[in-house]
Write a structure and sequence with these properties.
The chain is mostly helical. The chain has helices spanning 16-19, 23-30, 34-61, 66-83, 98-129, 141-164, 176-186, 192-211, 217-232, 239-243, 260-292, 298-314, 324-332, 339-354, 364-378, 381-390, 392-407, 410-435, 478-493, 510-526, 537-545, 559-576, and strands at 91-92, 321-322, 467-473, 497-504, 529-533, 554-556. Helix 3 (34-61) packs across helix 15, helix 6 runs parallel beside helix 17 and helix 17 (392-407) runs antiparallel to helix 18 (410-435).
Length: 577
C-alpha cells in the first residue's frame, strides 16, 4: 500500500497560461473526429430544444422581449463554450437573474440594463484575470441553497399573473407582499382558458418527465399549446399580441449611450450581476464536474463569462451565466466537449433566422407554466431539508438567506448569509477549543515512536499501490472545503481505495460535509472504496446528516483497522478473480 499525508500547499499549481487555456483547446488537442462531432451535434440539438422555450420565458419574466432572451442564449452559448474553463458548461440567460434584471429595467430602463450587463462583464473578467475566482467557493453551502430557493419563490410569484390570466389594477409591484395583495384583489377575474393552458403545460412537462424522461417535454408543451391557440383562435395573450413576434434576423452590435451619471447609477446592479453570475456559473461547473468526473478551471470560466456578458450587451441581450439545468441536459445527452455548447447556440440562431414567425403563436400562459416548473426544480428540496435538520446554526443561516432573498434583496441576502456563516464558524471554533483542547489548529512536531503508539501518526512501510491514506488536520469548514475536495478528488482518480482520517479534525461544517458527499458519490461511481477513520461523535453526526454513511462509505476507528480491512477485501477479490 502507498501511504501519503500530503499538505494542500504541496500540490503544484499550473502556470498562468495553462489556467486560462480554454477547455475547447484541451479537447481538440486530445483528438477530435467525426464520432465526437456527432455526439456533440446530438447533445447540442437536445440542449437547444430545452433552451428555446426557456430563453424566451426568462426574458419575458425579466421585463424584456423574448427575442433578447434568444440573442443572449446565442451569444452566451458560443462564447462561454469557446473560451470557458468547463467542458460541458452551457451559457445563456438564467432564471436566477430574473429578479435582478427586472428590477434594473424598472429602475434604469433598457439602456441601463445593457450598461450594467457590460460593466458586470468587465468585473467578471477582472475577477478571473486576477485569479480571484477561487474565493467565490468560500460562500457557505447553506447560503447557496437559501438564495437559490428564495429566487425560485420570487420567480414563481412573478408568474402567477400570467398563469391565471389576471388583469391587475396597476403595474405589478416588485415587493412580494405588495404583489400578493394586488394579485389577491384581482383573483376573482381569472381567465379559465389561460388557467387551462398553463395547467396543461405544467402537466405535460411533469408527466413526460416521469414516463418519457428523454422526450423534450418543454418544447412539446410549447408547440402543443401554440398549435391549439392558433387553430382555435383562443383569446389569450401570445408573444405576437404582446411583443409583436420575434424578428427573423440577428441584430448588429451597438453601444448604448454611456454617461458617467448612468454608469454610477447602475454600478450596484452591475456588481450584483457579477457576483450572482460568478456564483451561478461556478456552481454549474461544479455540478458538471460531479456528473462527469472532470475538473473545470474557475478563473478561465469567469473570464469567458465576462466576455460573453460584454458581447451580450453589445447585441442587446441580457445577463449571461452558466445554466445548471441546460448543462446537466448537455451531459446526459452525451456531449463530448465544448463544441456541443457552440452547436446549441447555432441551432438557436437557425431558429431565429428561419422559424421565428412561428413563435408569435406561443401563449404567455405556456411560458409561465415553463417557468413555474423551472422554479420548482430550482429548489434543492433534499438539501434544504438536510440543512434544516443538520444543526440550528446551519438552519439559521439557511433561513436568513432564504427570507432576505424573498423579502429584501439578493445581494443583501448573500452578504448577511456569509456574515452569519462566518459568525457561526467562530462560535463553533470557540466551543471546539474549549471541548477539544488536545486538537490544536497547527500540530506541533513529534518524535518518532515505536510499537502500537505509532499507528496513530505513522503507519509504517506498506506496499499496496491501490490504497491511499489522506489525513485532514484542523478545522474542515467552508473556507477549506474546495481545496481539500479537489485534492481528495485527484487522489481518488488513481486508486481503488481511499482512507480519509479525521482524527485531527475537531469539527466540520455543512459545506465540508457536502463536499465530502460529492466526493463519495463520485468515488462510488468509479468503484473506489472510501473509508473514514477517527471521526468524533459530532463529526460523524454531521456526516450522517448529509447521507455520508454505509454503504456509500464505511467507518473504522483508526487507520490501522481500515488498512487491515481493505487488505483483506482486496486479497479476497484477487482470490475470486
Amino acid at each position: 500500500m502507498k501511504t501519503a499525508t500530503r499538505e494542500i500547499n504541496r500540490v503544484s499549481e499550473p502556470g498562468y497560461v495553462e489556467l486560462f487555456t480554454p477547455k475547447l483547446v484541451t479537447v481538440l488537442r486530445e483528438g477530435y473526429g467525426l464520432a465526437q462531432l456527432r455526439a456533440d451535434a446530438i447533445a447540442g440539438l437536445t440542449v437547444a430544444i430545452v433552451a428555446l422555450p426557456l430563453s424566451m420565458a426568462i426574458a419575458i419574466a425579466s421585463g424584456v422581449s423574448p427575442a433578447q432572451g434568444l440573442y443572449t442564449a446565442v451569444i452566451g452559448g458560443i462564447l462561454v463554450s469557446l473560451l470557458g474553463g468547463s467542458r460541458f458548461q452551457i451559457g445563456g440567460p438564467a432564471g436566477a437573474f430574473i429578479v435582478l434584471v427586472a428590477g434594473t429595467v424598472q429602475a434604469h430602463g433598457l439602456d441601463g440594463l445593457i450598461i450594467a450587463t457590460m460593466i458586470s462583464g468587465l468585473i467578471l473578467m477582472a475577477i478571473g484575470g486576477l485569479k480571484l475566482g477561487t474565493y467565490i467557493k468560500f460562500i457557505p453551502y447553506p447560503v447557496t441553497v437559501g438564495f437559490t430557493a428564495g429566487i425560485a419563490v420570487v420567480i414563481f410569484s412573478s408568474q402567477i399573473k400570467d398563469l391565471l390570466g389576471l388583469t391587475l389594477s396597476g403595474p405589478e409591484p416588485g415587493p412580494i407582499l405588495e404583489k400578493f395583495r394586488m394579485i389577491w384583489a384581482a383573483l376573482p377575474g381569472f381567465d379559465p382558458v389561460t388557467v387551462m393552458l398553463s395547467g396543461v403545460t405544467i402537466l405535460v412537462i411533469v408527466g413526460l418527465k416521469r414516463v418519457r424522461p428523454h422526450w423534450p417535454g418543454m418544447l412539446m408543451a410549447v408547440v402543443g399549446t401554440a398549435v391549439v391557440t392558433a387553430l382555435f383562435g383562443l383569446p389569450v395573450s401570445t408573444i405576437g399580441s404582446v411583443f409583436g413576434g420575434i424578428p427573423s434576423s440577428f441584430p448588429m452590435p451597438t453601444l448604448p449611450a454611456f454617461t458617467m451619471a448612468k454608469v454610477q447609477a447602475v454600478l450596484p446592479n452591475a456588481i450584483a450581476f457579477a457576483l450572482l453570475g460568478a456564483i451561478e456559473s461556478l456552481l454549474s461547473a461544479v455540478v458538471a464536474d460531479g456528473m462527469t468526473g472532470r475538473r473545470h478551471r474557475s478563473n478561465c470560466e469567469l473570464v469567458a463569462q465576462g466576455v460573453a456578458n460584454m458581447a451580450s450587451g453589445l447585441f442587446g441581450g441580457i445577463c449571461v451565466t452558466g445554466t445548471i439545468a441546460r448543462t446537466a441536459t448537455n451531459i446526459r445527452a452525451g456531449a463530448h466537449g465544448p463544441v456541443a455548447g457552440i452547436l446549441h447556440a447555432l441551432f438557436l440562431l437557425a431558429f431565429i433566422l428561419i422559424a421565428a414567425p412561428l413563435a408569435s403563436f406561443i401563449p404567455l400562459a405556456c411560458l409561465a407554466g415553463v417557468l413555474a416548473v423551472v422554479a420548482w426544480n430550482m429548489i434543492e428540496k433534499h438539501a434544504f431539508a438536510t440543512l434544516m435538520r443538520a444543526s440550528r446554526g446551519d438552519a439559521a443561516v439557511l433561513m436568513a438567506t432564504f427570507l432576505l432573498t424573498i423579502f429584501r434583496d439578493l445581494l443583501e441576502a448573500i452578504v448577511v448569509g456569509f456574515a452569519l456563516g462566518s459568525v457561526l464558524f467562530i462560535q463553533r471554533m470557540s466551543k471546539t477549543t474549549a471541548i477539544a483542547t488536545h486538537t490544536p489548529f497547527v500540530a506541533e512536531d513529534q518524535a518518532d515512536v515505536t510499537g502500537r503508539a505509532a499507528a496513530a501518526s505513522d503507519i509504517g512501510p506498506v506496499t499496496d499501490p491501490d490504497i491511499m491514506v489522506y489525513r485532514i488536520s484542523g478545522v474542515f469548514f467552508f473556507g477549506a472545503a474546495a481545496s481539500i475536495g479537489s485534492v481528495l478528488d485527484r487522489i481518488a482518480d488513481t486508486h481503488r481505495a481511499l482512507i480519509v482520517d479525521f482524527a485531527a479534525v475537531p469539527f466540520l461544517d455543512s459545506t465540508a460535509a457536502n463536499t465530502l458527499a460529492s466526493l463519495a458519490s463520485k468515488a462510488d461511481g468509479r468503484g473506489v472504496r472510501v473509508i473514514l477513520t477517527g471521526t468524533s461523535h459530532d463529526v460523524r453526526r454531521e456526516l450522517f446528516a448529509h447521507g455520508i454513511k454505509p454503504p456509500l462509505v464505511h467507518y473504522e476507528p483508526d487507520i490501522e483497522k481500515a488498512v487491515g480491512r481493505l487488505r483483506a477485501e482486496l486479497s479476497l477479490a484477487a482470490t475470486r478473480s
